[in-house]
Amino acid sequence: MALKSFLMIFTPLSIITFTSISASTHALPFVVFHGISDQCSNEGVTQFTELLSKWSGSQGYCIEIGNGAWDSWFMPFLKQTAIACEKVKKMSELRGGYNIIGLSQGTMVGRGILEFCDGGPPVRNLISLAGPHAGIASIPFCGSTLVCILVDFLLELAVYSNFVQEHLAPANYIKIPTDIDDYRKGCKFLPKLNNEINRNSTYRERFTSLQNLVLIMFEKDEILVPKETSWFGYYTNGSWSTALPAQETTLYTEDWIGLKALDEAGKVKYFKASGSHLEITYSEMKEYIQPYLVENEPYLVETGHLRIQDSHSVWPFSGLKEATIKLYISN
Ligand SMILES: *[C@@H]1O[C@H](CO)[C@@H](O)[C@H](O)[C@H]1NC(C)=O
Ligand SMILES: *[C@@H]1O[C@H](CO)[C@@H](O)[C@H](O)[C@H]1NC(C)=O
């Protein structure tokens, strides 16, 4: 009698377990590029990469450029991109395609690889958290450490001078709205990345080859000015007032890099996280990032009158649901 009720209870469950095995998904590897002042070995970035690996069942790698924090401030972006390009080309794991996750400034490295890296492995999805895609109008408040004194000194020299462009990484994507002409003449990275002057059709082709472009803006972002740059929005020439939405900028209407083409194909996902710069909850990561790391959408398995989801859509850390990771290291 006892055995009989045991079987009655457990037989349907074992069928479900068996069926759900066939619903397993395959995921491409992903790489993470961290933000300014940060480095791969720091806890936030490590935890972020490990959690996403675990949830998506894919291998995640944080790629360091130079020595990490210092070089993130002082190595010019074309060089950062060239180093990152060589690194991804050497990783045999990425040859079948991979996804890129960029954190703030790291998004610029990710886009640099996507657009400029000749012979690099194919990039499937680009996931951007607080990426300064359309530029930033002021340098993030730094502080009084030795590094910051050096930064202020370099900025005062003139942001679009050759010297500052070669020695201060964020100067490569600063776009002063009242100094657009000097920006176009002197800025050595963002105008090229956004195909603003010499339209290189190769960059556009590579950008539009993405399967998904995921753009996450942080509602309380005080580091990126304006925060709408995370969605490719920006101030108009000569104005410091409200930022235009991406769709009203020339980059979009003239489709310099293919953002409009991607958007019209439904491949640009605009998400808003509720925190400050790079402060993201686990549930936001599950909703905005994890689905793009999994090759096939998780699907439902039906057996008789029971309906369960496959393992990818089951929350593995129910006790930690509202945990938050802060990925921005301030001084
Ligand atoms: C455009 O970019 C490609 C790839 O980097 C390069 O080979 C080509 O020379 C560039 N074309 C122009 C006109 O600059
Ligand atoms: C920006 O505005 C200035 C002043 O009106 C003008 O001289 C300049 O040509 C404009 N630049 C662009 C890129 O539209």
UniProtKB/TrEMBL annotation:
Keywords: Hydrolase, Signal
Gene3D superfamilies the record matches: alpha/beta hydrolase
InterPro entries, per database record: AB_hydrolase_fold
Signal peptide span: 1-27
Pfam families (UniProt xref): Palm_thioest
Domain of life according to the entry: Eukaryota
GO molecular function terms noted in the UniProt entry: hydrolase activity
Name of the featured protein: Alpha/beta-Hydrolases superfamily protein
The species this protein was found in: Abeliophyllum distichum
